[in-house]
Amino acid sequence: MLGNFAYCNPTKLYFGDEALQYLNEELPKYGKNVVLVYGGGSIKKNGIYDEVAEILKTNGKNVTEIAGVMPNPTLEKLYEGIEIARKHEADLILAVGGGSVCDYAKAVSVSVHCDEDPWEKYYLKFEEPACEIVPVGCVLTMVGTGSEMNAGAVITNQETKLKIGHVFADENIMPRFSILNPKYILTLPHYQMIAGIYDIFNHICEQYFSGEDDNTSDYISEGLMRSVIHSSRIANKDPQDYEARSNLMWTATWALNTLVAKGKPTDWMVHMLGQAVGAHTDATHGMTLSAVSLPYYRYIMPYGLTKFVRFAKNVWDIDATGKTDEQVAEEGLAAMESWMNELGLVMNITELGADEEMLEGLAESTLILDGGYKVPGRDDIVTIFRNSL
Ligand code: NZQ
Ligand code: ZN
């Protein structure tokens, strides 16, 4: 661990099939006015809405709602929510949903008491809030993003075709508490379940494939990746397997709550490419990542060969005897590819609605970051997208 860093994560987690009861312990800590945020209606169908509403009522809260937060929440929807939260003089924003709902709640929380335009301030200038932040709590219903224990909030500007994530530096933007009941994710459609599984895996990769030093974060990452692969195979065969789903829920949280980024430059280019695809197609986040991953990793592999060899051996159990480093590294990626196919992930951007004519626009929407083993140029980005078609 050669870097210098601070580590603080104040989110309190309640985990297990009885976790919602702890909402009764959390609610009294906040004022009366609660804004309940949720998505397109899944929580009404599976009964989570009723359970949460009952607890809010028992605790005497004055509740207003922001409903209909869509996957890949838009800036337009954000403006609407800010107005609702302002009018209600929100003391707590309670997000009940997946990453989109949790992200959205955080974006509202930093904007309610802010006079400036949130898109301009937080997503174009990447500034930190200088205002009071409304506390956020989460009841998680979809697993993958890690939004339940981090300070990230991704918003899509449909007009400019930019999907931008701001990972705030201020830990007060992390949810104050998150309720993780693995039973709540059992109603997810298979497509969302596997998209979430790949999102978890890729979050770990984005942090793992960077840096050269011997770093404890990499050993933790390898353990998390092995757990994801193991549980995903069980969950893919039997999505109702509580044990596998609960392990996936827990690994998702630890994959992106800043722990395994410690001491690492971190790459995040798969997410930048995926977010560009998301901005143009509104496709499911995890699938935008699976569709671009292999062309990206095959592009950077020669520059980070040592780490790709380690990945092959420690994550995929590739036997290196008598093989060159290149062969071992390629076998590791091939093993990953076959696991991705086994899950049924989307493996190209064509299936998500992209085509040859969109390549320049996709490259235009891709933010280029410099933490990985090779900083891609614009032409490289176009080539990676072309290889993802
Ligand atoms: O809207 P409803 O009706 O609730 O349906 C949702 C939605 O259609 C459904 N769903 C959620 N829980 C369910 C359920 N359906 C049945 N049963 C349940 N229990 O699932 C669909 C997808 O939900 P969404 O919240 O959009 O998924 P996810 O958790 O993958 O979140 C995606 C968003 O998070 C951002 C992504 O970019 C995207 O905007 N990310 C946030 C990150 C962060 N905060 O750090 C990092 C990630 O890399 C990611 O970028
Ligand atoms: Zn992600």
List its salient traits.
two-stranded antiparallel ribbon; binds 5,6-dihydroxy-NADP; Rossmann fold; 2 domains; alpha/beta; Dehydroquinate synthase-like, alpha domain; globular; 6-stranded parallel beta sheet; binds zinc ion; 47% helix; single chain; 389 residues; 15 helices
What's a concise summary of this model?
The chain has 389 residues and is α/β, with parallel strands linked by helices.
Give the overall average pLDDT. 97
Radius of gyration: 20 Å
Task: Give the DSSP E fraction (strand runs of 2 or more residues).
Answer: 5-15%
Structural category is: alpha/beta
Q: Would you kindly provide a written description of the structure presented here, covering whatever features stand out?
A:
The chain is of the alpha/beta class and 389 residues long. It has two domains: 12-185, Rossmann fold, CATH 3.40.50; 195-387, Dehydroquinate synthase-like - alpha domain (Dehydroquinate synthase-like, alpha domain, Up-down Bundle), CATH 1.20.1090. The chain has helices spanning 23-26, 42-45, 48-58, 75-87, 99-109, 118-124, 190-208, 216-237, 242-255, 269-281, 285-300, 305-316, 325-343, 359-364, 378-387; strands at 12-15, 33-38, 62-66, 92-97, 136-140, 152-157, 162-167, 177-180. It has a six-stranded parallel β-sheet with strand order 1-8-5-4-2-3, sandwiched between helices. It has a two-stranded antiparallel sheet with strand order 6-7. The radius of gyration is 20 Å and the shape is globular. It starts with 11 loop residues before the first strand and ends with a helix. The mean pLDDT is 97. The structure holds 5,6-dihydroxy-NADP and zinc ion. Residues 39-43, 46, 71-72, 97-101, 103, 141-142, 144-147, 150, 152, 154, 165, 184-185, 187-188, 192, 196, 199, 256, 271, 285 line the site of 5,6-dihydroxy-NADP.
